[in-house]
Design brief:
single chain, Lipocalin, 9 strands, 47% strand, elongated, alpha+beta, eight-stranded antiparallel β-barrel
């Protein structure tokens, strides 16, 4: 076999070997990663915002779907996504709920859902960790940081995540009532997995 042919054959073998090793590494990395759906019936989101007339307005909206990935035998999330139904937002006052559904606020006819998709998880200790991700509401996606506390065991983990958002960053209009309502909204998510 000519030297050039031997060199070409060696190069092809090296490429195939490298590809095989890479493919094996990918398979090894994905082994033990557990994909689980969110238990929508047990998940919920609550929010709170300062209001000069009633101290704080609190409300809730359901988590309707989502999924998570975590290492086998661990309750620390590797990734998580969730969809919330803004059309079912409740504050305990039907008139206020109607106002919040309008274009000046959440505009739920145009933007019926809120979505969250994680981009990075920061490991912590004692069941605590951080999650970076994109929260989309009112048609605007913004990066956010969630502080997460885990309870339960690896088979049945429960996560409580807290995030602070600026409502103006999501394109909500400034109205005559704007000075009465705080900018910072605290959203707390309680997440159960199936």
């Amino acid at each position: 076999m000519p030297a050039a042919s031997k060199a070409l054959a060696g190069l092809i073998c090296a490429i195939l070997l490298a590809f095989g090793l890479c493919a094996s590494a990918v398979r090894a990395d994905t082994l033990g990663v557990q994909h689980r759906d969110l238990d929508a019936g047990r998940c919920k989101a609550q929010f709170s915002v300062a209001h000069v007339f009633v101290e704080h307005v609190t409300g809730s909206l359901p988590v309707v779907s989502g999924s998570a990935e975590l290492a086998e035998g661990s309750s620390t999330l590797a990734s998580v996504s969730a969809v919330l139904d803004a059309t079912r937002l409740k504050t305990g006052d039907d008139d206020r709920d109607g106002v919040l559904a309008t274009p000046d606020w959440f505009d739920t006819k145009r933007y019926p859902t809120w979505t969250f998709v994680s981009t990075f998880v920061t490991p912590g200790s004692n069941g605590r960790f951080g999650v970076e991700g994109l929260l989309t509401l009112h048609g605007v996606a913004q990066p956010v940081h969630l502080d997460v506390v885990t309870s339960g065991d690896a088979a049945h983990p429960v996560y409580q995540a807290t995030v602070h958002i600026d409502r103006h960053a999501y394109g909500m209009k400034v109205t005559r009532l704007d000075p009465a309502v705080g900018n910072d909204v605290t959203v707390t998510l309680l997440v159960h997995l199936k």
